[in-house]
User: Fold this.
Amino acid sequence: MLLHIAILITALSLLAFGGANAIIPELHRQVVDVMGAMSDTEFTNLFALAQTAPGPNVMILSLVGWRLAGVAGLAVATAATVIPTSILALAAGRFLSRAGGSRALHAVRAGLVPLAIGLILASGFILARAADHDGLTVTITGVAALFLLFSRINPIWLMAAAASAGIAVRVISP
Amino acid sequence: MSELPAGHAAQSEHTEARITHGTLFLAFLKMGLLGFGGVAPWVRQVIVEERRWMDDREFASLLGLSQVLPGANTINTAVLLGDRFHGISGAAAAVFGLMAMPLAIAVAIVEVYGAVSQNPYVVAAIAGAGAAAAGLVIGTGLKIARNLKRSPRIILMTLVTFIAVGILRLPLIGVLICLIPLTIAAAWFDPRSSAR
Assistant:
């Protein structure tokens, strides 16, 4: 299990262009569909917790390790999340500080932009399909997206308001 | 990027002398702890406004590199900044500062959640927060798209990526192996992207 976690998360973290959101679909596919290690709902809840808690959202990988194999899983998943990409960043930073801005570098940077946007939108779409099972949750997803897009509100307030709305509706119509 | 080491050397040596492994650790610890719903806004706040380790222009070039690399942007930023001031051990201090407390808090939340997950109000709150989290991801993607100069290349590659991964749910590794060369080639031949 630990080796499986190490390989899966190393591979995913090295593909996480645009951050954790880019690999949510594949993490979901592996953990829920392929491994059957947790339910759709459990995965979505874990993602919501990783989003709500302070720190980089890439911690979802550490939390998945924690749920799959306890403390050892957490340690292995965190190391697999941080170390390979950090070595890459270290190497790239030192290389690029010498290479300067060539046309090839511009093309790499410009080419990755639409890839990152497409991956983020795909993640949001897949998460919304798992999270939105009634009128309330569909509305919350839409309102959260619109507020993020058109206001400068701290997302933590949106998360708090959405949790409160969930509780309020539960109280009114149990 | 070539000005990074040179710019660093040209900066006041007082600034450099004050940046120890401890200050790197503490600065990134603060970013990690304050970063509810995403660390990125706090990275600039602490590095540029509070610690004054670099100006906005330098910070933008550092962040740009962090974004084109795989992995969390904030972890990459911690690595690049830590390495710049204190080599590999500086990078380790910054990454450890960024990750340590948030991980402990997240695990504590998951544990508490396991104990209270039968409570219908907790379930309702988490369901609401989960729906909002999905909306925030969609909103972030749309926000980045809105802030870019749109071109046919960007719209087309964004749609292809979204459909392949989001609608068809193809395995990510295969999609990236096909799309990375395609999107870089498209950018190479796109006069708008090479002009910038």
Remarks:
- Chain A is about 80% helix and 0% strand.
- The helical segments of chain A are 2-14, 24-34, 40-52, 59-99, 103-131, 135-150, 155-172.
